[in-house]
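note to self — DONT lose this again. spent like an hour looking for the file last time. sequence + predicted structure for the chain T wanted, 426 res
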Amino acid sequence: MTTGYRPELIQRLFIDFISTRLHPFWSLTVPKLRLIARLTLSDDLIALQFEPNRAFKQQAFSSGNSSHNGWHGGQHIDLSILIDGVYHQRHYSLVGLAQQPLWWYEDSTKSSNENKNSFDEKSQPQTIVSTITIAVKPQGLVSDYLSKRAALGTIFNSGLPSGEFTLAHTVLAQQASQISEPLSLTPIPLPLLFIASGSGITPMLGLITQALQNGHPVTLLHYNRTTFYKSPLQDQWQQLATKYPTFIYHLINTGDPNTYLAGSRHLSVETLIALKLPLMDTQIFACGSPALLAGLYRACDEINLPDNKQLRDNITIESFSAIESLDHIFSTIDKADEEGITSDVKTIYLRGRQRQYNSSTTLLLGAESAGIRMSHGCRQGICQLCRCNKISGRVKNIQTGKISNDGYESIQTCINVPMTDVILDI
């Protein structure tokens, strides 16, 4: 009886075994990326451009993913990076959308076409469609290696685009699951609010473009410690604002009062109200440090909506925190509020600098509020750059809820709040 089964005469894994020894970039089954370019997006954000191999293209652009031509805005990829003989795996947000040129390529293409009498489609760089771009903040072992040390041409094993920080995985699924669907066939697009801090802006670069293409009114609120003036990233927002009248952006440099919204460097109820959005119908996308996300949830809880609705139900978050669930962060912080931990100001003494400051929040944020700069990186308890030695005093880890002892130990200032007066060896 004929079953239709046709065995492979030559196994694909065997072909992979041979091809990777001929050239490490060749593979029928393993997605790989080759680093081909770097671009500075801002003072602390570097874009890395990769060429995908055949296996990546076939799997990412298969029929199963044809609905979004490769990936959705807001998704990420996993990279496996070999550093000093040890493999490290990290995931990074994809910049832009598949099958669409990034804005710096659009600019260069327009400039070159101005010198031509006619436009030749074949002259447009074909790599625009097939390249993969991520953005990294030079901090920690892996990101610093990718942004500074990895040579152009280096090859990395890669996962496929994934993640649920997308329009299609929110309450807007019926409106956004098909990018190519004519806008006239969809319901009236809901307003969207995007809130980011620091490198949390990276997953939004493609997501905002996709939302605008679908006709959504979009407002962006980006908090950062560095200036945005004349950066390629600011150019992108200005281009979108020119092209889409429904796009409004606020770039807040936390060190420059002239950029503050509602007179505050931090996210608050007043900030949300100042945006003048129909908050009850606004979908909120947020990506950043646990402090930003917790502040957003607190502010939303203070806003009363009709019909007993809660604004926090409109929030979709992205975080690359090591914690399995960010709900644990919020529940821990809420519990801390109830216990009066963050409302009772404590004194933090920096022994090495002979300085002190008062803090009612994390040790790092308290220092920054007092104008004291301390080492930090991700602000999420991952990179370990803020780690220091505590001489005395008790602190509470807002991620785990663990309360320290009163003696000497190593702690991270970005995720610990003081329970008592604290002395740090800084």
